[in-house]
Write a structure and sequence with these properties.
two-stranded antiparallel ribbon, 19 helices, mainly alpha
Length: 467
């Protein structure tokens, strides 16, 4: 993407700020439920306390059914970033101990929203669209990301599972933003962009390793494209934070489990997943077509008469040698959840494969992010929250399309806006249905408030397993 007149860029700030307010109200169940004990969220506080005591254990009563027992020591496999964040928070406000999940998750959600808006802002500056069309498409894309992506699900349930994922997604998008920014700046601005990339990549690695590894692979591509001036300073800004995080991650993995992966299923408390992994492995290429079919099918959620009018539920997906569960928690495949993004990513891929479409850096970065995309399709579990790992690659390809689409973007902008509107409606209603009726990790009080808002009786619907 080339540097062009900044006046051509769309104005996305008002809509992004408004969406941040809406997401605050959504996350806090109307804005008041700020300090709430989410499911196993206190495990991060316990991990933070043990870090300060010089060990890597966690209190068993805070991690319970997700514990990993190593030589009679209780460990957790979740990334340490939310725990590190708890250290200053609990120092400043001790009364919030065990109740920081929603504030933490909202901060991550806001970062991801602004990072995405920044990416769209940069990309559309070099598009062939008129100023009016750029504003329409840019603002629609930000709305699409807020309500037509897994962001809504992750903010609606900030249990121990989703908090690390939303931070990984947010910091991954932040790193991608700074990577593009570094390609468009020079002098001190370049150094700041490289430092921003390295800090975000470091945080992504410590949040969820699948988000961090592709960014580590992208770092050498950035280093190879650095100009000769201030090369040592720029390399230091690029390498130092990321290298420190990588060293800490490796040390922590060895301290917890004696390996570099950050998890060891030999010690996992759940016997079903433990035995399945021993027999069939965590990743397998045999799962690729089946996982892809589940995440990218055209399966539409069933309809119901009462609000929110969609019934999002688990569905049978019984492949005993491929997945450890005989069901999938992908309640809404990506063509319905984020059809606009899938369309934009496909168009972006065509730009990437054209001989003169983009530079080598963009192709190398796309390959690195595709490795993450592929990794989640080889995993032994299927869930809507895991789909977040697919999004950095899809968003990267979308940004390539918005910046390099040319005539194709000019002709398809109305299609994209229409797909955004469809995804926002379907994903929002289906996600509320999942949170209200089927997600067992949503606090009972939160679920009751949702049902009161929807005008329904406060009852918990049992999952329908009659297929």
């Amino acid at each position: 993407m080339q540097i062009t007149d900044g006046n051509r860029a769309p104005n996305l700030v008002p809509v992004t700020l408004l969406l941040s307010v809406v997401l605050w109200l959504f996350t806090m169940t109307g804005g008041r439920d700020i300090f709430v004990k989410e499911v196993l969220g206190g495990a991060y506080d316990s991990q933070a306390e043990h870090f300060l005591c010089g060990d890597v254990d966690v209190d068993v009563d805070t991690i319970r059914h997700e514990a990993t027992i190593v030589n009679d020591h209780v460990r957790m496999y979740f990334g340490p970033f939310p725990a590190l964040l708890r250290i200053p928070l609990n120092f400043l406000y001790p009364a919030g101990h065990g109740k920081w999940s929603r504030i933490s998750g909202f901060c991550a959600g806001a970062i991801s929203l602004f990072a995405f808006a920044g990416l769209v802002h940069m990309a559309l500056r070099s598009s062939p669209l008129s100023s009016r069309a750029r504003n329409w498409l840019g603002n629609a894309s930000v709305i699409g990301f807020a309500f037509g992506s897994p962001l809504l699900l992750l903010l609606g349930n900030l249990s121990i599972y989703d908090e690390a994922i939303i931070w990984g997604l947010a910091l991954s998008l932040g790193a991608i933003f700074f990577a593009f920014r570094s390609r468009q700046t020079e002098a001190s601005a370049l150094t700041h962009a490289l430092l921003g990339f390295s800090l975000c990549a470091a945080g992504a690695l410590l949040s969820r390793v699948t988000f961090g590894v592709p960014l580590i692979l992208i770092a050498p591509f950035l280093a190879l494209t650095l100009p000769r001036g201030n090369r040592i300073i720029n390399l230091t800004a690029l390498v130092l934070p990321l290298a420190a995080a990588l060293i800490f991650y490796i040390w922590l993995s060895y301290a917890r489990f004696g390996n570099v992966t950050g998890v060891h299923f030999d010690y996992y408390i759940d016997p079903v997943h433990r035995e399945f992994v021993h027999k069939f492995g965590v990743f397998s290429p045999r799962r690729l077509p089946y996982s892809f079919a589940d995440y990218f099918s055209l399966r539409f959620p069933s309809l119901q008469r009462e609000p929110p009018y969609f019934a999002a539920n688990r569905h049978s997906y019984d492949y005993p040698s491929l997945f450890s569960n005989n069901f999938s928690e992908v309640y809404l495949p990506l063509p319905w959840c984020s059809g606009w993004l899938v369309f934009g990513a496909i168009m972006g891929i065509t730009c990437l494969v054209r001989r003169h479409g983009v530079a080598a850096f963009e192709r190398g970065a796309a390959v690195a992010l595709f490795a993450q995309f592929l990794c989640i399709l080889l995993y032994f579990l299927l869930a809507q929250r895991y789909a977040a790992d697919l999004y950095p690659f899809l968003i990267f390809c979308l940004i390539i399309f918005l910046g390099s689409g040319g005539v194709a973007l000019l002709r398809s902008r109305h299609v994209m806006i229409g797909l955004i509107a469809l995804s926002v409606v379907v994903n929002s209603l289906a996600t509320v249905s999942w949170l209200v009726d089927y997600d067992m990790n949503v606090p009972t009080e939160t679920r009751a408030k949702w049902k009161q808002l929807l005008g329904r009786k406060s009852r918990l619907r049992s999952p329908d397993w009659s297929f």
